[in-house]
Design brief:
heterodimer; B: alpha/beta; 6-stranded mixed β-sheet; 4-stranded antiparallel β-sheet; 9 helices; 13 strands
Chain lengths: 276, 304
């Protein structure tokens, strides 16, 4: 069995053992159902909202919790083993440092993937059964895209967390950095971009500005998920500066992939040079 | 053939000199004890051999390879780190299985090793519940996975009870017979003499003495001490011994303690045996502990 697979299975085993996967699955089901049912509460009614509104709310929710969960899952991957003392031992074993890192990454993405797939599929099935005016033919593609891109978003933040785990020298610092990254991408970035847009009165250049959105993986995720819905343009807010012609799905998906590969490569580079 | 060979190896951290021009060779089937205070360079030496650190100067060869290419030999290597810890939420057996898979060791070996280190009853309990000694045994089992030809054990007896320590030494003896080379770092010196071929004493990153117990004794010229118990009412015996140029260190009506260099030990013992007023003789030769203290003290007095 290859070393990567052994490490990945160990990560998966850990996630199952400490009931991480099952808890996250339950959280996802509850959130998705809650949003689907109470999503329209602001306008004075309860009941299932139209699919487009539902998807936008789901995407907004996912942007908050998926990065947080991914960072929490992975921030101590390397530094945790270093503090425990097992890293020293593992590095004397017949496995390359990059194999350890890729193994951890794969195991964690699979764990988060299982929870995402189970949680949101279950929610999708429940919605189909309960909501009268949502049909399977419109729900399935939207949910499939949502689940796929949510796993990719999780993978981005797992890769970032692994990078953090490789350069810090204390677990608590890794936690601090992870929280900062979360704040940066989930809260600060869009605010700063909006501020820039307003302050320059749109002078940044309409053809250049949308590309700035690619600098934030959560915006890529949001663009991917709302682009299919006309009705969602109202709720898109800042994202409406990016027209679908400018940022095709192909560009969005490859940017997201780049957001996984880049931190992971830097993490490997750092880890190979790390003194333990 | 040397299994491990260090020649003129130095390791500096920004200002600190961790190792200074160290030469070290270990052949197949040799047990070497690496002794020294904290910070003397023992762990640095081990990490250099394991390829976890790079030497600032000099050459390190393990199985004829640079340890940075440790994928060539890491399957033949067993390492027990100091204060070993494992995944608290896994059971002892699961931990050992994980490491066995990584080392491509046979699955059946896991059970056999758990029995060998006396953990078969605790194998299905989580490591969280293990005592220090049990963790240490699990660490040992892990180091023995596969078929190691080189073992590096950092403080292997810490936390082990006397029986487990004895078992460990017996395991080491049988491994040596199979041609396994073993490097042992230890603070606990009494008891290891009979199981090691050679000791290397480090101080401030420098080698201050190396050799077998016998060779170290000869280098150190430390006296053996003899305690004589008997029944005498005058200091006639004490006078007689003084005449033979023996140092008497303590003396009362029933006991005399003397110190004597090893070349005269038998001569004095014969003299004592011929006396009728003596009940018992205890001799004590300088052991590793005394030699260690002697060599490290001496190196502190020498200008470096």
């Amino acid at each position: 069995m290859s070393a990567i697979l052994i490490v990945a299975l160990k990560e998966l085993q850990d996630a199952l053992r400490n009931r991480w996967i099952i808890s996250i699955t339950v959280i996802f089901v509850l959130f998705a159902m809650g949003l689907a049912y109470f999503g329209t509460a602001a306008s004075g009614q309860t009941g299932f909202s139209p699919l487009s509104t539902m998807m936008v709310s789901l995407a907004s929710l996912a942007i908050f919790i998926i990065p947080l969960i991914a960072l929490l899952l992975a921030y101590d991957s390397i530094i945790g083993e270093e503090e425990l003392g097992t890293l020293l031992l593992l590095l004397t074993y017949p496995l390359g440092r990059w194999q350890l890192l890729i193994g951890k990454f794969s195991g964690q993405v699979i764990s988060l993937g299982i929870a995402t797939l189970l949680g949101f599929s279950l929610a999708g099935v429940l919605i189909l059964g309960l909501a009268e005016d949502i049909t399977a033919s419109e729900l399935i593609p939207a949910f499939a895209l949502f689940i796929f891109s949510a796993i990719a978003l999780g993978a981005v933040f797992i890769a970032i967390a692994l990078l953090i785990s490789c350069f810090v020298n204390e677990k608590s610092k890794a936690a601090g950095f992870s929280l900062f990254v979360w704040f940066l991408f989930v809260l600060i970035f869009d605010l700063a971009l909006l501020g820039l847009l307003v302050a320059t009165e749109g002078g940044v250049g309409a053809h250049f500005f949308p590309y700035l959105l690619l600098c934030n993986p959560t915006d890529i995720f949001r663009l991917l998920n709302i682009s299919g819905f006309e009705a969602s343009q109202v709720q898109a807010g800042l994202l409406s500066v990016a027209s679908p012609e400018l940022l095709s799905t192909k560009i969005l998906v490859s940017s997201l992939l780049l957001w996984i590969i880049t931190p992971l490569s830097i993490a490997i580079w750092l880890f190979e040079r790390k003194n333990v | 053939m040397s299994i491990v060979s260090l020649s003129q190896v130095s390791k500096y951290y920004s200002k600190l000199i961790a190792l200074d021009k160290l030469d070290l060779d270990i052949t197949a089937g040799e047990i070497l004890a690496l002794l020294g205070h904290n910070g003397a360079g023992k762990t640095t030496t081990m990490k250099l051999i394991l390829g976890l650190l790079r030497a600032s100067n000099g050459s390190v060869k393990v199985f004829g390879q640079s340890p940075q290419n440790n994928h060539y030999f890491s399957q033949q290597l067993g390492y027990l780190p100091e204060n070993v810890h494992f995944y608290e939420n896994l059971t002892g057996k699961e931990v050992l299985r994980y490491f066995a898979r990584l080392k491509q060791a046979k699955k059946q070996q896991v059970q056999a090793l758990l029995e060998q280190v006396g953990l078969e009853d605790a194998a299905n309990r989580r490591v969280k519940t293990y005592s220090k000694g049990m963790r240490q045994r699990l660490g040992l089992a892990q180091a023995l996975l596969g078929k190691p030809r080189l073992l590096l054990l950092d403080e292997p007896t810490v936390g082990l009870d006397p029986l487990a320590t004895k078992d460990l030494y017996m395991t080491l003896d049988s491994l040596r017979k199979e041609g396994v080379s073993i490097i042992l770092c230890s603070h606990i010196l009494p008891g290891i003499e009979r199981h090691i071929d050679r000791a290397v004493i480090l101080e401030h990153g420098q080698l201050v003495a190396t050799g077998s117990l016998e060779a170290l004794r000869q280098q150190a010229c430390l006296p053996s001490s003899i305690r004589v118990q008997g029944n005498w009412h005058s200091n006639e015996l004490q006078e007689a011994l003084r005449k033979q140029a023996v140092t008497v260190t303590a003396c009362n009506d029933e006991e005399i303690e003397l110190q004597i260099l090893s070349e005269r030990k038998l001569e004095i013992l014969r003299y004592l045996l011929n006396r009728t007023d003596i009940h018992n003789i205890e001799t004590h030769d300088p052991m590793l502990e005394e030699l260690y203290v002697y060599f490290t003290r001496r190196s502190m007095c020498l200008p470096s």
